[in-house]
Amino acid sequence: MSVLLSIDSVCKSFGPFQALDNIHLDIEQGEFIVLLGPSGCGKTTLLRSIAGFMQPDSGRIAIDGQDVSRLPPYRRPLNTVFQNYALFPHMTVLENVAYGPRRQGVNRAEARIKAREALAMVGLEALEDRFPRALSGGQQQRVALARAIVNQPKLLLLDEPLSALDMKLRKRMQLELKHLQAKLGIAFIFVTHDQEEAMTIADRIVVMNAGRIEQVGASSEIYSAPASRFVADFIGEANLIGYQASESGEIRLGIAHTPISSGAKDLLPHGVAVLRPEHLQVLDASSPASASCCELKGTVTDIVTVGSHTLVHSLIDGQSIVARTMGFPRADLVTGSAVRLGFNPAHLHLIGEPV
Ligand code: ATP
């Protein structure tokens, strides 16, 4: 794989507010990248800077080794799919898609062939004579996609393209997009603030916070080894428990009374331990914890059953902790009852904080 897009030291401010703070990012040919972060973290500003709709204050953006920082959007080898699809209402589906090649000087017959090929890629060949107003949201989204890929860009930018769709259609379109991207082999950069969506479709997720990149990695990596407290909290549900470490590698969690041998070297003396809810087991009142299991003792504060699983919220030494168990809860587990939670220390992920 070789680098397609290289973003180097990109900064952007709006007055005193720094929207992008020294962004460095390399994207490979054919990768599906998701920019993920809370509202206002700079995702759209970064996407618009790549597209050329916005000029960064400093830094360099290169595509295939060519510096495009000063090129207008239409001279960059990329295309953008917007949230509102931006279809031409007075043109049919076929005309909408053929518009791009026509603008590039391709003759009418050839442009229609290319448009039909693009429509076939998104499964809309039967609707080529319809006008956008006679299409469902999902169909309009596919037309917008066909229009964006018809000129075979090297890079496709997608700015929250599924946010207007209902949840079921959105989930279906996520998988369709993933398959389409694999078929085309074009790199996609997709913006969302929905972490489940990001984990479903991305080869690599770029987690952003307050204009900075916090972590770049595959979803499994980001979930199991978050690089910061922010990432741990933003991706999935997490119990963040303060810890102190001794020089010998022994960990003392703020809410557990027995020390845990981590076996790790070079631990920072304190920080947070990340423990995912699915790694906490609700122990039977009578059964002892297994030898490899650490135990927390507290009181149940809430039990939430969500069909396939149950969330058991507890208060342990003044801290709220959530455990996830499969199926329905045990009958003896009610709000106010004593609870014992067990976990394997191998599932603790430690994020040290410099003193
Ligand atoms: P969302 O998920 O809500 O779309 P985002 O992560 O895409 O958020 P951006 O649109 O990139 O966020 O905005 C980043 C920050 O820059 C925000 O605080 C926003 O208010 C600010 N901002 C963006 N454009 C401008 C502008 N033209 N003038 C002033 N501030 C702006």
TrEMBL record:
Reactions catalysed: ATP + H2O + polyamine-[polyamine-binding protein]Side 1 = ADP + phosphate + polyamineSide 2 + [polyamine-binding protein]Side 1
Origin: domain of life: Bacteria
Keywords per UniProt: ATP-binding, Cell membrane, Membrane, Nucleotide-binding, Translocase, Transport
Membrane-traversing stretches: none
Cellular component GO terms, alphabetical: ATP-binding cassette (ABC) transporter complex
Enzyme Commission code: 7.6.2.11
SUPFAM superfamilies membership: MOP-like (SSF50331), P-loop containing nucleoside triphosphate hydrolases (SSF52540)
Assembly and oligomerization: The complex is composed of two ATP-binding proteins (PotA), two transmembrane proteins (PotB and PotC) and a solute-binding protein (PotD).
Function as written in the Swiss-Prot or TrEMBL entry: Part of the ABC transporter complex PotABCD involved in spermidine/putrescine import. Responsible for energy coupling to the transport system.
Family indicated by similarity: Belongs to the ABC transporter superfamily. Spermidine/putrescine importer (TC 3.A.1.11.1) family.
Record protein name field: Spermidine/putrescine import ATP-binding protein PotA
Source organism: Pseudomonas silesiensis
Encoding gene, per UniProt annotation: potA
